[in-house]
Design a protein that fits this description.
It comes from Vallicoccus soli. Belongs to the uracil-DNA glycosylase (UDG) superfamily. Type 5 (UDGb) family. By secondary structure, the protein is an alpha/beta fold. It has a single domain, classed as Uracil-DNA Glycosylase, subunit E. Helices cover 33% and strands 11% of the residues. It contains nine helices and six strands, in the order αααββααβαβαββαα. It has a six-stranded mixed β-sheet, with helices on both faces. Helix 1 runs parallel beside helix 6, helix 2 packs antiparallel against helix 6 and helix 5 crosses helix 9. The chain binds iron/sulfur cluster. Iron/sulfur cluster binds next to helix 3 and helix 6.
């Protein structure tokens, strides 16, 4: 544990809301959830998606995860020793009215927890964004830091759990505490949504729970996860396709359990089912910031 408090290097503290980090949705007056009941109340009462992102990004409801994300931000990895870490929950990111939603497990300690943007700045993200770009769902093939000009096209991404967990394993209590953030986000984007891509078995189960909570009919027993699994679900706004992919973790990609053509196949199917143009598109990159 790194001691926090007076006298600590301010560069090793989590980024304070509204202090200029590119894409920071929060400000000094954004309300902070400090327990699961407050997460549920603040998520349900967020007036729009931007405010929901802001509230997610300052949450402190899980003591173990708050301590872990801030300790990692203070200690930093040698390769990033000269960088400031975000050290806060990583909110959902992408289009406000997406046709495709990509669901992951949780931010990486030195990826999203460092850059403040989901799947940005870690090897899994390198794989994923290259494939999203090839499928026409991201403007650039790389995603290295917030403010780098990257932009999702017709697509949004979220993590089922918003804080980086030790060993990539949130507890059941932490998963449940965080669920209202994702539930509110899925409910907000559901009307235009056509496809959900779940990266890994945890995200598959989380997606089914989130969709069921948003009024989508999920069969019992629940459909099983597998790479390339595909289930058509009926929702309040029409048919929705749930697609499964192995997670682009280093463990999966290094062992070739997941190859680039396998990921391309799933994301290409997602783009086509969503009625989005297939193949690489430049789009209009977001302006470089920071
Ligand atoms: S995991 Fe979710 S509920 Fe827990 S502190 Fe992070 S954002 Fe809040």
């Amino acid at each position: 544990m790194i001691a926090r408090g007076e006298g600590q290097d301010p560069d090793r503290l989590p980024v304070a809301p509204g202090t200029g980090w590119p894409g920071d949705p929060a400000g000094p007056s954004t309300p902070v959830a400090r327990d699961p009941a407050q997460v549920a109340a603040l998520a349900a009462a967020a007036p729009d998606l931007r405010e929901l992102e802001a509230r997610q990004s300052v949450c402190r409801a899980c003591p173990r995860l708050v301590a872990w994300r801030e300790d990692v931000a203070a200690a930093r990895r040698r390769a990033y020793a000269d960088q400031r870490y975000w050290g806060r929950p990583v909110p959902g990111w992408g289009e406000e009215h997406p046709r495709v939603l990509v669901v992951g497990l949780a931010p990486a300690a030195h990826g999203g927890n460092r850059t403040g943007r989901i799947f940005t700045g870690d090897p899994s993200g390198d794989w994923l964004f290259a494939a999203l770009h090839r499928a026409g769902l991201a403007a650039q093939p790389t995603s290295v830091r917030a403010g780098d000009g990257q932009r999702l096209l017709g697509t949004r991404m979220l993590a089922a759990v918003r804080c980086a967990p030790p060993d990539n394993r949130p507890s059941v209590e932490e998963r449940d505490a965080c669920a209202p953030w994702a539930r509110a986000e899925v409910a907000a984007v559901l009307p235009g949504l056509r496809v959900v891509v779940a990266l890994g078995a945890f995200a598959w189960q989380a997606s089914l729970g989130l969709l069921s909570g948003a009024g989508v009919q999920v069969p019992r027993p629940r459909p099983r996860f597998g790479h390339g699994a595909e289930v058509a679900l009926e929702g309040p706004s029409g048919t929705l396709l749930l697609l499964g992919s192995f997670h682009p973790s280093q463990q999966n990609t290094a062992t070739r359990r997941l190859t680039a053509p396998m990921l391309d196949d799933v994301l290409g199917r997602a783009a086509r089912a969503a009625g989005l143009p297939a193949g690489p598109r430049g789009g209009s990159p977001a302006p470089e910031v920071g």
